[in-house]
C-alpha cells in the first residue's frame, strides 16, 4: 500500500514529518508481494522489518523502508504509459513508479494538489497492458464530470450510474461505488480483465449510510487487482493503509528512515547514533526557549540513560490512549502558545483568543507561565504603575485577592483574561491595558465581542463549537462574523488575521451487517459473512489492540490469583453488600456536595465540620475527617472547589503521623469537594478545640466516632429549602444509604478498612478482566449466524 503526498504543496506527510523541506524527504507507503522486491536491485533502500503472526489467522503486514529517489525518474520508469504537459511533483513521480510496478497506491493530499494525475496514469498503464480500468466516484454528478474529462484524454470511455449506462465495456468505465459492489457480488464477467480500480474520495468510508459500501468493495476486490485511492481529508491515512494491507494480504512499505535492527536481529549502532543525534537536536530549546518553555524538570517515560528493560516493543504505530481532561487542556495550551509565538514573529499582535468557557479562559492563560510578550522593562513598569493606581482604591485585604494577584501577574507579561466572572474593576483595568496596546494576547469569552470596541490585529478561535446553555453546537455565521470582526484596526492594519483551531475527523468504519449483505453473500460459494466482518475496517481497529489486550489480561489474571483471600468472621457476603452501598453513596455525594458548595449555603463546609472522605491515595475505604478550611475555585489555585482536611486512620499510610491511641493522622490539602467527600455530617467539633494540636483533634474525632456523629447526614433546614427541592431525591438517597450501611455488621468492624480495600480491588480487577475478555472475544461476529437463521426461517436462503 503506497501513501503519497506532496510536501511542497502542504500535503499530509509534510505536516506530520517535521523538518521536511523538500519533496525528496517525503516517503511512500506501498504494498506488494514481498518476493517481487526481495532481489530487485532498484529497491536496495527497502529494508525489511521483522513482522509477527497475524491476529486474524493470516500473516500480518510487514513494514518496509521506502526512500525512493526520483532523480532518475525517467530511467526507472522506462517508456511511460502517458505523457503529461507539465513536470510532475516528486510525490506524483513516486506514485507513478509504484503504479508502474503494479502496487496499490493511496494518495493523501489536499485539494488541487494533483491526485487525479496519478489516477490518469494508472488508467493509461492498465490500457497499455491490454486491460481495462474502473474509476469509481461517490456521486453521479462527479461520475458525469469525469466522463466528460476522460473522453478528451482516452479513446474508449464509458459510464454506469443508476440513471444511465453508456459503453459499459469500454477500456475506462466510470461508475458509482454501489454499482461496483453489485458487480463484485454477482461476479460480473466484465471484471475479468480489470487491471486497476480507482477509488476517488475514499474518505466517504466515514459516511454513516454509504461508508460500508467502500469497505465491501475493498474487501471483495480480487487480490491481484491494484487499487488507487484518492482523498484530501484522511488524517489517519497510515491506519487506513494498514487495514488495506491486511485485507489484501500484501506487504506494506512504509517510511522508517533509520532501522535500529535488521532482519537478522542485529542492532545497528550507526543508525541508532544518527537518529539519537537528530532527536536531541530537534528537542534542543531554541535561543529564546527560556521565555517559551522555561526550565522543565519533568521526568519522561521511555527515554533516558537507565538500564531498565524496554516494554512493549512492537511493529507499527501503538494505539493512542485517550487523553484525560488535564492532558487535553495542556495540549491545547501548548498549541495556542505556539500560534501566539508565530503571530508575534509575524508582527500580528495584539490578538484576541475567543474561548467559550470561563474556566478554559483562565486555564489557557495560567498555562503559559513562561510566555512574556512585553517589549521590555519600560513597558512592564507602565503596566505595574497603572495597575497599582487602579487597585489603590481597594482595601488592603481586597488587593490581596487571588483574582487580582493572578490578573496582575498575567498583565506584567502582556497577557489578559476577560470574562463575566471577573470583578468589574479588574475587567475595566484589563480593557484599558488592551486598548493601550500593553495586553498583547487577551483570552476572552464571546461577550467581549458584544459592543466592546477593542479591535486587535488578529483573532483566534480556540474552538468552533460552543455550549449554548442546552447543548453543544457549531458557531453560527453571525457569531463568527461578530467575533472575527474584532480583527483589524481602522487606519492601522491593511489586513486582518483570523485563525480557527480544530482537528481532522479521522476515518472510522461504518460497517454494519444487513440482511441485504447476507443475501448477497449467499451467492458467493467461497465467502462467508464472518469472513467479510473479520476483514472490515471496524475489525482492524480492534485487531490492532488485541496483543496489548491479551498481555493485560494475563497480567490481571495473575494479579487476581495473587490477591489474599478475604477471611471475615461476619461473612464475606456482608462485606460485598457493604461495598456496593459505599460505592453507590460516592456517586450520589459527588453531585450533591459539588452543587451545594457552589451556592450561597456553602457555609456548611466550615472549619470543624465532621465529614467522611474517600479519595485517599493509598486507602479505598472511607475515613473520618474534619474540615480545616475550604477554598473556592480561583485562577491562582484551582478551578474546582477544595477543602483542607485532617483524616484519622486505623493504619499508617505514606505521609501519616502517629496520634497515640487514636491511630494515625494525615493532612490532605486541596481535596476536591465533588470527588473527595462521601458524607457531610450534621455535627462539628465543639468550640475551643485547638486546631493546631493534631493529637487533640484525633482524640476528639475518635470520641465523635464512638458517639456515632460521623453517621448522621447533614440536615438541611429552612435556609436550604431551594437545594432540598432541587436535589430532594439525592438527599433522601444519601440518608437511606447511610442508614443501610449503619445496619451492616461490617460498619463497626475494626477490619472494615482492610477488607473493604480488598473487595474493591477484587471488583476492579474482575471488571477489567470482563472488559478485556469482551474486547478479545469475537462476539460481534455472532450476529451473522443469528440473522442467517432468520433468513432461512423466512425461506429467503
UniProtKB/TrEMBL annotation:
Extent of the signal sequence: none
Domain of life the protein comes from: Eukaryota
Protein name: Superkiller viralicidic activity 2-like
Compositionally skewed regions (Basic residues) per UniProt: 296-314
Biased composition (Acidic residues): 30-48
MF terms (GO), sorted A to Z: ATP binding; helicase activity; hydrolase activity; nucleic acid binding
InterPro entries: DEAD/DEAH_box_helicase_dom, Helicase_ATP-bd, Helicase_C-like, P-loop_NTPase, RNA-DNA_Helicase
Helicase ATP-binding domain mapped to chain residues: 96-252
GO biological process, one term: nuclear-transcribed mRNA catabolic process, 3'-5' exonucleolytic nonsense-mediated decay
Composition bias, Low complexity: 1-29
Region of interest (Disordered), residue spans: 1-54, 286-327
Keyword terms, alphabetized: ATP-binding, Helicase, Hydrolase, Nucleotide-binding
Native organism: Perkinsus olseni (Perkinsus atlanticus)
Span of domain Helicase C-terminal: 369-538
Keyword Nucleotide-binding: yes
Annotated Gene Ontology cellular component terms: Ski complex
Amino acid at each position: 500500500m503506497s501513501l503519497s503526498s506532496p510536501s511542497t504543496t502542504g500535503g499530509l506527510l509534510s505536516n506530520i514529518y517535521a523538518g521536511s523541506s523538500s519533496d525528496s524527504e517525503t516517503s511512500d507507503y506501498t504494498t506488494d508481494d514481498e518476493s517481487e522486491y526481495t532481489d530487485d536491485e532498484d529497491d536496495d533502500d527497502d529494508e525489511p522489518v521483522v513482522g509477527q503472526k497475524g491476529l486474524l489467522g493470516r500473516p500480518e503486514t510487514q513494514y518496509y523502508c521506502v526512500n525512493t529517489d526520483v532523480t532518475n525518474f525517467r530511467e526507472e520508469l522506462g517508456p511511460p504509459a502517458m505523457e503529461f504537459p507539465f513536470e510532475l511533483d516528486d510525490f506524483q513521480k513516486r506514485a507513478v513508479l509504484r503504479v508502474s510496478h503494479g502496487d496499490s497506491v493511496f494518495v493523501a493530499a489536499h485539494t488541487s494538489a494533483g491526485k487525479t494525475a496519478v489516477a490518469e496514469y494508472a488508467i493509461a498503464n492498465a490500457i497499455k497492458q491490454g486491460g481495462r480500468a474502473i474509476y469509481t466516484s461517490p456521486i453521479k454528478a462527479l461520475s458525469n464530470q469525469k466522463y466528460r474529462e476522460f473522453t478528451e484524454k482516452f479513446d474508449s470511455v464509458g459510464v454506469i450510474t443508476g440513471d444511465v449506462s453508456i459503453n459499459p465495456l469500454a477500456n475506462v468505465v466510470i461508475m458509482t461505488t454501489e454499482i461496483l459492489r453489485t458487480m463484485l457480488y454477482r461476479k460480473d464477467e466484465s471484471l475479468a480483465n480489470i487491471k486497476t480500480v480507482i477509488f476517488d474520495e475514499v474518505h466517504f468510508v466515514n459516511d454513516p449510510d454509504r461508508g460500508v459500501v467502500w469497505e465491501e468493495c475493498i474487501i471483495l476486490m480480487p487480490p491481484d487487482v491494484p487499487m488507487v485511492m484518492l482523498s484530501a481529508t484522511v488524517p489517519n491515512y497510515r491506519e487506513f493503509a494498514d487495514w488495506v494491507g491486511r485485507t489484501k494480504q500484501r506487504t506494506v512499505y512504509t517510511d522508517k528512515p533509520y532501522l535500529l535492527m535488521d532482519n537478522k536481529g542485529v542492532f545497528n549502532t550507526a543508525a541508532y547514533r544518527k537518529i539519537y543525534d537528530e532527536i536531541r537536536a530537534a528537542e534542543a530549546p531554541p535561543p529564546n526557549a527560556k521565555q517559551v518553555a522555561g526550565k522543565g524538570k519533568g521526568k519522561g517515560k521511555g527515554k533516558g540513560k537507565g538500564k531498565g528493560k524496554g516494554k512493549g516493543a512492537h511493529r507499527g504505530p501503538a494505539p493512542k490512549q485517550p487523553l484525560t481532561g488535564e492532558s487535553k487542556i495542556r495540549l491545547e495550551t501548548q498549541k495556542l502558545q505556539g500560534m501566539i509565538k508565530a503571530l508575534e514573529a509575524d508582527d500580528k499582535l495584539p490578538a484576541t483568543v475567543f474561548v467559550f468557557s470561563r474556566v478554559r479562559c483562565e486555564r489557557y492563560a495560567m498555562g503559559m507561565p513562561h510566555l512574556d510578550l512585553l517589549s521590555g522593562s519600560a513597558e512592564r513598569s507602565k503596566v505595574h504603575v497603572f495597575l497599582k493606581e487602579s487597585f489603590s482604591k481597594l482595601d488592603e485585604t481586597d488587593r490581596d485577592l487571588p483574582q487580582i494577584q493572578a490578573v496582575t501577574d498575567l498583565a506584567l507579561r502582556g497577557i489578559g483574561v476577560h470574562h463575566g466572572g471577573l470583578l468589574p474593576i479588574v475587567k475595566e483595568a484589563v480593557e484599558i491595558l488592551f486598548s493601550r496596546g500593553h495586553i498583547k494576547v487577551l483570552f476572552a469569552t464571546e461577550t467581549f465581542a458584544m459592543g466592546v470596541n477593542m479591535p486587535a490585529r488578529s483573532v483566534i478561535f480556540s474552538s468552533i463549537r460552543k455550549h449554548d446553555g442546552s447543548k453543544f453546537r457549531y458557531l453560527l455565521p453571525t457569531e463568527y462574523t461578530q467575533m472575527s470582526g474584532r480583527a483589524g484596526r481602522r487606519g492601522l492594519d491593511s489586513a486582518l488575521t483570523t485563525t480557527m483551531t480544530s482537528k481532522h475527523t479521522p476515518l472510522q468504519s461504518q460497517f454494519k451487517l444487513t440482511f441485504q449483505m447476507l443475501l448477497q453473500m449467499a451467492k458467493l460459494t467461497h465467502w462467508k459473512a464472518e469472513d467479510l466482518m473479520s476483514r472490515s475496517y471496524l475489525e482492524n481497529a480492534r485487531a490492532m489492540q488485541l496483543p496489548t489486550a491479551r498481555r493485560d489480561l494475563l497480567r490481571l489474571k495473575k494479579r487476581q490469583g495473587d490477591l489474599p483471600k478475604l477471611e471475615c468472621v461476619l461473612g464475606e457476603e456482608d462485606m460485598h453488600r457493604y461495598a456496593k452501598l459505599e460505592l453507590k453513596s460516592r456517586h450520589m455525594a459527588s453531585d450533591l456536595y459539588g452543587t451545594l458548595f457552589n451556592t450561597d449555603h456553602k457555609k456548611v463546609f466550615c472549619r470543624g465540620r465532621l465529614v467522611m472522605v474517600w479519595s485517599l491515595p493509598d486507602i479505598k475505604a472511607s475515613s473520618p475527617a474534619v474540615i480545616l478550611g475550604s477554598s473556592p475555585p480561583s485562577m491562582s489555585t484551582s478551578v474546582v472547589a477544595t477543602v483542607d482536611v485532617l483524616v484519622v486512620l486505623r493504619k499508617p499510610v505514606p505521609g501519616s503521623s502517629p496520634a497515640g491511641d487514636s491511630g494515625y493522622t494525615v493532612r490532605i490539602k486541596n481535596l476536591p469537594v465533588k470527588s473527595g467527600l462521601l458524607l457531610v455530617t450534621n455535627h462539628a467539633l465543639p468550640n475551643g478545640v485547638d486546631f493546631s494540636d493534631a493529637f487533640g483533634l484525633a482524640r476528639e474525632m475518635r470520641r465523635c466516632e464512638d458517639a456515632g456523629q460521623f453517621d448522621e447526614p447533614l440536615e438541611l433546614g429552612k435556609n436550604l429549602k431551594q437545594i432540598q427541592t432541587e436535589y430532594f431525591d439525592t438527599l433522601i438517597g444519601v440518608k437511606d444509604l447511610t442508614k443501610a450501611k449503619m445496619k451492616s455488621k461490617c460498619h463497626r468492624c475494626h477490619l472494615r478498612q482492610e477488607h473493604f480495600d480488598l473487595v474493591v480491588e477484587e471488583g476492579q480487577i474482575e471488571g477489567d478482566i470482563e472488559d478485556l475478555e469482551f474486547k478479545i472475544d469475537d462476539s460481534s461476529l455472532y450476529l451473522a449466524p443469528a440473522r442467517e437463521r432468520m433468513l432461512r426461517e423466512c425461506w429467503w436462503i
